């Protein structure tokens, strides 16, 4: 079996509401998503989606993804799609780094592998650890009243875990936000305070040692070293996200005792192959994890949630569905969907969801030539 063609689509995905985070220094109102379909000479097709959260969140952007795919396609066409590990190494040799650009290609290879094996992806990734995955809401930065209103709306949709985006230059405002949210929290609810690296270490020490919240604080400072030093001065558990770009960063975080948990995101790490490696490492060292993607439609969400479902429950905190923030839906009713705060995965072979090609429209590019 050989890869015969790689088709690429670009779609702009408007958000339902503009989204503010990192103390208001970052704002996103639409996402630039890239869809990939890998065709084989035996008729099997695999789908993947790569969707950075804007272009200022992590070192990733849609234009870079599509340019990199043009280069990477030459290393894949003519190769056997079942050789996923070898093809990942070939992509890394062709273009070191740029993990986000490789993610949709890797996910499409896994979709093909699942279809050939006639099993849903969660089985190839380790097997279901339950019936469903809990999902958390994502609460944009605002005044304490605005954030509590968003949490109440999410609660009405069944969410019981919330990721509240805080962080800014005014520690008093962050303390007020956190204390107000804690006071409004229902007894069975969990809140993660996601700072998105907005605090300098001194602000982080001030805020975290002033609040009553004893749950997770996520990516409080910019760098891995800053978060590691901070951890020695606070009592709350720390979750790392944006400062983890590859497996080496996970290894460093563990060796330096930087955190109690990490976010595992296929689009940040380079696809399901590398996200699974990070997930398995996290299980081995006893971390707690959120397994979800950086952004995208139900296609990206479903790929990440297959990995979440195959993660032991004691290591898997709630995941997140980006689709909840989007106006458009390329596969209504299909794939990973929120049902009162829980998500079941499709039982069809492979990814179990594909975008409607009429919705996708004309391809951005079609790559058919093997590498010279
Ligand atoms: Mg985060």
Q: Can you offer a commentary on this structure?
A:
The chain has 372 residues and is of the alpha/beta class. 36% of the residues lie in helices and 21% in strands. It contains 13 helices and 14 strands. It has helices at residues 62-76, 84-94, 99-117, 121-124, 144-156, 171-184, 201-208, 224-231, 247-255, 266-269, 272-285, 298-309, 357-360, and strands spanning 3-21, 26-40, 45-50, 133-134, 136-139, 161-165, 190-194, 217-218, 238-240, 261-264, 288-291, 337-339, 342-344, 365-367. It has a seven-stranded parallel beta sheet. Strands 3-2-1-14 form a four-stranded antiparallel beta sheet, sandwiched between helices. The protein has a three-stranded antiparallel beta sheet with strand order 4-13-12, with helices on one face. Helix 1 (62-76) crosses helix 2 (84-94). Bound molecules: magnesium ion. Magnesium ion binds next to loops. Residues 194, 196, 218-219, 241, 263 line the site of magnesium ion.
Mean pLDDT: 96
User: What is the percentage of strand-forming residues?
Assistant: 15-25%
- Share of residues in helices: 25-40%
Structural class: alpha/beta
Q: Please report the total strand number as a whole number.
A: 14
Main sheet: strand order: 5-6-7-8-9-10-11
Strand count, sense and closure of the main sheet? 7 strands, parallel
Name the bound molecules.
Answer: magnesium ion
Apparent shape:
globular
Alpha plus pi helix count: 13
């Amino acid at each position: 079996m050989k890869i015969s063609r790689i088709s690429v689509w670009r779609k702009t995905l408007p958000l339902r509401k503009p989204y503010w985070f990192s103390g208001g220094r970052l704002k996103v109102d639409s996402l630039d998503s890239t869809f990939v379909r890998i065709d084989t000479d035996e008729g099997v097709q695999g789908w993947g989606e790569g969707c950075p959260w804007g272009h200022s969140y992590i070192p990733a952007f849609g234009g870079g993804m599509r340019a990199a795919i043009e280069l990477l396609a030459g290393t894949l066409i003519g190769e056997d799609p079942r050789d996923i590990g070898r093809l990942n190494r070939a992509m890394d040799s062709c273009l070191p780094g740029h993990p986000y650009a490789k993610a949709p290609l890797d996910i499409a290879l896994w979709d093909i592998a699942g279809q050939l094996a006639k099993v849903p992806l969660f089985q190839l990734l380790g097997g279901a650890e339950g019936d469903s995955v809990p999902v958390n809401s994502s609460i944009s930065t605002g005044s304490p009243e605005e954030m509590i209103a968003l949490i109440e709306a999410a609660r009405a949709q069944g969410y019981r875990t919330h990721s509240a985006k805080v962080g800014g230059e005014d520690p008093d405002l962050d303390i007020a936000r956190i204390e107000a949210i804690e006071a409004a929290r229902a007894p069975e609810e969990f809140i993660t305070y996601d700072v998105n690296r907005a605090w300098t270490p001194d602000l982080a020490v001030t805020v975290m040692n002033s609040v009553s919240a004893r749950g997770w604080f996520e990516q409080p400072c910019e760098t891995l070293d800053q978060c590691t030093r901070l951890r020695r001065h606070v009592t709350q558990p720390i979750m790392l996200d944006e400062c983890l770009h590859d497996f080496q960063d996970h290894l460093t975080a563990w060796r330096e005792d930087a955190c109690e948990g990490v976010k595992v995101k296929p689009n940040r790490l380079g696809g399901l192959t590398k996200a699974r490696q990070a997930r398995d490492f996290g299980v081995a060292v006893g971390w707690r994890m959120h397994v979800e993607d950086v952004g995208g439609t139900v296609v990206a969400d479903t790929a990440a949630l297959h990995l979440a479902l195959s993660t032991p429950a004691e290591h898997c905190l709630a995941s997140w569905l980006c689709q909840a923030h989007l106006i458009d839906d390329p596969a209504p009713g299909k794939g990973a969907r929120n049902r009162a705060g829980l998500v079941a995965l499709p039982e069809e072979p492979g990814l179990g969801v594909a975008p409607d090609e009429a919705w996708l429209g004309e391809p951005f590019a079609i790559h058919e030539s093997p590498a010279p």
